[in-house]
């Protein structure tokens, strides 16, 4: 389907994995694109929006090829590059813009945000991130593990709430354990920890609430679809009707009575 207008490139965060969790702007952009480019997993999650567009599917490890193809097509077409979660949070926005910059792409580029894994997971767990937090990926495919260790240590010492992305894969099955060991050197074992798998993905969603000293009991349960939130010494677990949630106080309790 050829556009009659000058090309345009959308870089779209599709959120946790369902059309219902996408922004209206993101849905409209997909529906009105000539081409939709993305990882097959993400395209499957928005298949109800794919009707009439040309679809270009690829798989993990082909990110550079996807970015180059999207930029090439955008010279004369309206193109949607889809990315899971938010395209700026370990997503495709940076790579696509780098390729566009390198090729001096002269079309309108619009990045549309999406619900991230940390905010999706936090909503499942209650209110664990209402204060300062850090997001750290445990994937050392593109970032040296030595640098990841420095970031884990710094965030732990500064008492940030810490979100761990990409905790384990078949090739990286020890990084999660190593990360928890580093955090535990600077944080009390009683700190609440939430683990969310497939956040906001319907019946496949699962979550656990535990404490830092016991979180490695779930080592075998953790995989690439899991996001872990390590809270602070001020956070607490609240049980309501058999469901455990994490509350991290924002600080109102120090100024107000409620």
Helices and strands in order:
Layout: E1 8-13, H1 24-31, E2 35-39, H2 40-45, E3 54-58, H3 63-73, E4 78-83, H4 93-102, E5 108-112, H5 117-125, E6 126-127, E7 133-137, H6 145-157, E8 161-165, H7 175-184, E9 192-197, E10 206-211, E11 226-230, E12 236-240, E13 243-247
Parallel strand pairs: 1-4, 1-5, 2-3, 2-4, 6-13, 7-8
Antiparallel strand pairs: 8-11, 9-10, 9-11, 12-13
Helix pairs in contact: 3-4, 6-7
Account of the 3D structure:
By secondary structure, the chain is α/β, with parallel strands linked by helices. The chain has two domains: 8-112, Cobalt-precorrin-4 Transmethylase, domain 1 (3-Layer(aba) Sandwich), CATH 3.40.1010; 117-250, Methyltransferase, Cobalt-precorrin-4 Transmethylase, Domain 2. Helices cover 26% and strands 26% of the residues. It is built from seven helices and 13 strands. The chain has helices at residues 24-31, 40-45, 63-73, 93-102, 117-125, 145-157, 175-184, and strands spanning 8-13, 35-39, 54-58, 78-83, 108-112, 126-127, 133-137, 161-165, 192-197, 206-211, 226-230, 236-240, 243-247. The strands form three sheets. A five-stranded parallel beta sheet has the order 3-2-4-1-5, with helices on both faces. Helix 3 packs across helix 4 (93-102). The N and C termini lie far apart (59 Å). The model has no long low-confidence stretch (mean pLDDT 94).
